[in-house]
Amino acid sequence: MPDIAPFTDPVGSIGGLWVYQSHRYPDTFGGGSDAVIELRFFPPAEFGADAYVLQRSLNGTDGRADVPWGGDVLRTPANDTNNFSFDPGGNYFYRLRVEGGTRAGQVSNVVSAEVSIIETRFAGWGVDSSIFITGGMYPWVGHGMEATFDIRDLTDDDSPITGGIDLQWYRVHPRTWEMTPIPGETDPVYATTNDDVGGWILVCRATGDGVTVGGFINLQAGGGVLIPNKAYVSQFTGEGFRLNLFKSVPSLEKEDLLLTYYDETLMDNVPVPIDSVTHLAGNATFFVTVDLPDGVEELQLSNVSDVWTLGEEVAFHPGMPPMFNQSVTVKIEPDITVMHPGAKVLVDNAGKVNLGTVKVKKRSAPKVFTVRNDGAEPLTGLSVRVTGADAREFLATPLPVGTLAPGASATFSVTYKPRAKGSSKAKVQVASNDPNEVPFDINVTGKGKAKR
Question: pTM of the prediction?
Fold first, then answer.
């Protein structure tokens, strides 16, 4: 995964002021229309402030004054307010001034908004992020977005207007709202790329041509484009479990992970504190130290990142292909893992293990298999047997234990002793209380050859 630094606020100031739209609207008290500008911003509470006062100037550099409003100034009425919508009375540059808190007196980034003189309004807009646009699914890299706009003519009974706007897609810094145009992206449909990863906000700006349509609108069309990273948990112990990622990451700390379970009584997700995350080999495997709660059978593990997200493929609907889900299910149950020499993990009843070509009535070298409990509960009822048409030609030693604690392992071996020339096959079955792989089947093969 790429190592991308998170976006931050400008030093000694606040960010996030932007112009959502500038257009006209039918006059409330009669004919004609009024200019309307809508500004949006982070609420004052995000910066520990009590309020903002809106300031304006003609050139954006000096002569600033608080915007008058009803005998006072235009001030946020509450610390959770996140927008102003007003008739500007002219073309100005705007910024916010902080009131209260440790940032009192700080100001925001500066934005400008020209008043529209064309009698049109933006009556509707939308963004479709359907998987059918590009075949990619939101928010993964490659998903498509299609912006639509509904524009009305105020001089003609609010009738719809077709055309009259130019489109441009932008990547926007989420803290300063600095807008960077994406070269060549001037169509309604945009497909996300790796350049959008890292926390950028994506905006489609519709600008009137100044003849048919006036004003503009910055339509926030999405953001948080992520790279999916398949993951699974294994090797439970009394202290926690191992997290395995398909793609290595620059870093992973306990603050980056979220572990929760659903409480039926509270009807809410309950967080489970993670004590530590220890990096193992390659920055793709980690040991997560956590005290798993008693009585909980299933948890969900997710991560916090502007670049990537861990998850697993889940079949949400019968008959549909599995889709990537932004969390990993952590089941508190036994989970059998079987490996053969070289630590290769076997898949239940898939593939074959070949014990080689052996002279009739002679024994092959033993193949050693390891059984490990990767679940969070004891793996019990362990036993090994051989079945199939040629079962008598494959000899399996018993496991030395009948129960494995979480994270514990044991071994058994299989040898091949052909009774006649030709190919032989059988199944070595490992029985346990694993709820899914019951029994765990290992397909074994061999070939007998004549004595000389």
Answer: 0.81
